[in-house]
Amino acid sequence: MNTTNQQRIEEHRILSEPFYLAQGNEVELALAAAREQLPLLLKGPTGCGKTRFMRYIAWRLGRPLITVSCHDDLSTSDLIGRYLVKGMEAMWLDGPLTLAVRHGAICYLDEIVEARKDTTVVIHPLADDRRELPVEKLGMIYAAPPEFMLAVSYNPGYQSVLKDLKPSTRQRFVSLSFTYPQPALESRIVMTEGQIEETLAARLVRLAGMTRSLKESGLAEGASTRLLIQAAQLLRQGLDIRSACRAGIIDSLTDDPELLEAMEEMVQSIF
Amino acid sequence: MDLDAQKQAFYELVSPSRPNDWEVEEVMELLAGIPADYRRALLAHVPTIWPISHSLCFSFLGEGVKGASRCPPELLSEWVRQILSRYEESGLRAARDFMGDIDTNFLQPLHGNAGVAVDAIRGAMVPYLRGVSGLALDLAADGQGRLWTDTRTIFVPGRQRLFAERVDNLLFLRFTVILQWGYIAGGSFRRQPDGRDFAALAARYGTGAGEGAIDAYLSCFPDPARAGQLLLLFELPRVFDLIRRELPGLVRAVQPLCQRLLAEDQGRCGRRGDQVHDLLRSILLPPDPPPPVGDHRLQGDGESGALSRFPDFYDRLADGRAGADHVLTLLVGEPDFIAARKRIEQTRAEDREQFISRLAGVLEQTRAQGPAGEKGPGGAGRADSIVLTAQGGDRHGEQEEAPGLSLLAEIELPPDLAAVRQRIEADLGEVPASYIQAAAGMAGQGRNLASGPETDGQIVPPAASFVYDEWDYRRAGYRKDWCVLVEKELPAVMTDFVPLTLHKYRGLKTRVRRQFEMLRTAHRFVKRRRYGDDIDFDAMVDALGDRQAGFAPSDRLFIRLVRDHRDIAALFLVDMSNSTEGWVGRMIKEALVLLCEVMEVSGDRYGIYGFSGMRRSRCELFHVKHLHEVYGEEVRQRIGAIGPREYTRMGPPIRHLTRMLQGTDARLRLLITLSDGKPEDYDGYVDVYAIEDTRKALVEARGAGIHSFCITVDQTAQDYLAHMYGRGNYIFVNKIENLPRRMTEFYRLLTS
């Protein structure tokens, strides 16, 4: 069984350096938190680089990264593990959290607010100075090795009252706030990831900046870096700039005809 | 039909009011001259317009008679709609002007051949402008057809029809708006002439040595208005460069239009070699033959900086009046530097006040949390300061600066405060130390004052009323027992308002009802139940595994489809201040009617209260529907009775409803405020004070486990909204017609 687990954990190892440009001192902070064995809370708008950041940190620390995308059907068994029946034998299968604890990996719960609040309570003993994971069914308490790290992410921009983090969960973490990168930095990211030339990348970033100023005018969220990269990829495939921006950015942001028109005009003005 | 019968019919239409006989007679005589069908069509709109404005109604009939030959009866409804929205926006005179020329203002635009009406494109243009500029700029039609800006709002001619094609007009309009933004962003309205600049003018024109801002400087010229326009021309190269860099696509598209305008102009005036003309050509159009090198005679200001060359520039161009000035006016407009300066000063003062009071609040909080925030390295307290550094970007090296600034660096600034700080920095270069000192002083003072209860001026409440504290931001403390709130009944009135509204929104109602039904029947599968519709395979496998491992297996092996019990209690608080008079109030009521209809479907508990009042001794809360009351005829009548009353003191009613909601056992408790602008009352309950008290009341509600949201009906989103309601806790509806739809939509999104 250990060999299976070993194989499973190896699948999560990040072998080549993910492309990441630091916005500020977040890398140092995360590494410091790792040394002090503190859990991380990443917050920021969608597509601003939270998940990429975790991959980068995992690579820097040389630890496997186990990512769990949270949803509202996620149960504690899904996180901790369960017994399965094989032949006439009951077999325990570690869940991602247990797997990470036992192998000193990084467990990253993406969009944690999507999970039900009672589910996320299981991470509490791991997220304070006890750093242990009680597994009721096995009757065991796993103490997390120093290499183990817990990280969660969420997007504070949602308007629904049902999507917020409990204070008791929130107040266990070192928080890193992510925003969209500075224009120069974001251009470099779009240029590198989308493999397009620099001036074009800068203009895409300028467009994104404009859409982000529209929050007051009814746009739920401005264009993310991820959308820009997506548009850049369409461009790379030879699409013309307006269709790429329309399909890759604008139409993904809203259905409101007036906002669509305004953004369409922005594209025409910039390019 | 004879005149008397007609008059009688009119009186019935406008009953119960009784207009002057002679007025009615005059209109009826006019009406007698048009075909009976058309007359009936016109009169059919009287009940709509009469309650809004009597004078407007008479004018409408008069102009309607004149337009009888041109405007087909089936277009009358649309015409009336436009008249009313014009009236709501700019008053009686504007509405009359609008009616006066039915061809230009209504029929031609309707057939799409009358240029671009600003009102029609505002919806897309304002987001465009805001997106491009990153500023909360606004766009408005100027009554006199001028193009200018006060640095907050850009005023443009109400209709742009320079070109035959709509798309060209739109493009040119967009360009001129962007040009105005260029002047704002390029700092043209913020220039500070120095003593030498004034001295140069004194030497040249013999004016006294002056001082002051750019408007004072311009007033020293023989023709200040002309000087203002020429200053914009002087700066045009720099501003145009900025726009070309930022928006190359726009510049590329607009250049042919500029060329056409300049060519027409030249054709019309036949003045070759006009200096303004040549200058515009050289700036705006791509250089045809390369420009002569070293020709400094006619250049604008290439880079931001000295005004020293401007008097020369002025003298050369001031007298060449007619010529290309037409094009110049079309492009840069007729600037009003005085209005701009006043607006800048006002914004600066507002920012200063907001910054100081908010920072004082933050300092106070930080101080109060004090030792609790320090949980050793990496504790929760540490996490806060990390937020600051990550958010604020590079903060290294600020420790060596003035103590005030390092103070800023150490404290986590909430987003709204950070935004104000950014604005101040953009305006003044840095946050003046005096601001921070003032805030620090205020925070300290507030602490002392807040510790002792405020007893002066206590009010003895009348019976059956409630007394509430009020937050005074200036001392960061409560004024004890400051406001008296009285619960009142709205008199039920017999009205056909509700049936009419339901008829009007029958389509929307059906659609929204269906959506709300979906809410109620939002069924989902629940796993691991003791009984249910199907076997939960995961649970089954777990149980088998457990049994094999020697554990007692769970008996929760079924999956069941459940209808979610929503368990929501929502209170709606409706602004009944006199500013809601007219369409705003009407639409709010219509929105309430629609909301009630669909809330019944959702099954959520809900109540509706109106509020108004005057002074702290008389805040009134009007009962429309209690939480547990059945939605019936009485409630409908009370909705019909909602009407504009006095002022908007928001703190007390919010505190009162918070208390009410605390008494309910619902899992999710919502307080939704519906308002049309800033809180305001008679006795100093204005601006920052009112906003801070409202904010405090909402914070208290949040502390009591109540989710508070606000729907604001306003022309534009105001800066204070985010601060007052908290980010993400409000929506603003700028098109009042959309309110019923947006409101139900908002409620649905909020609770699903």
Automatic annotation (TrEMBL), chain A:
Family designation: Belongs to the CbbQ/NirQ/NorQ/GpvN family.
CDD domains: AAA
GO molecular function, one term: ATP binding
Organism, scientific name: Desulfoprunum benzoelyticum
Sorted UniProt keywords: ATP-binding, Nucleotide-binding
Protein name per the record: Nitric oxide reductase NorQ protein
Domain spans labelled ATPase dynein-related AAA: 39-173
Annotated InterPro entries: ATPase_dyneun-rel_AAA, CbbQ/NirQ/NorQ/GpvN, CbbQ_C, P-loop_NTPase
Domain CbbQ/NirQ/NorQ C-terminal as annotated: residue spans: 186-269
From TrEMBL, chain B:
Residue ranges annotated for the VWFA domain, each copy included: 569-750
Listed SUPFAM superfamilies: vWA-like
Protein name: Nitric oxide reductase NorD protein
Source organism of the structure: Desulfoprunum benzoelyticum
InterPro entries: NorD/CobT, VWF_A, vWFA_dom_sf
Highest rank taxon of the organism: Bacteria
PANTHER family: NORD PROTEIN (PTHR41248:SF1)
Xref: Gene3D superfamilies: von Willebrand factor, type A domain
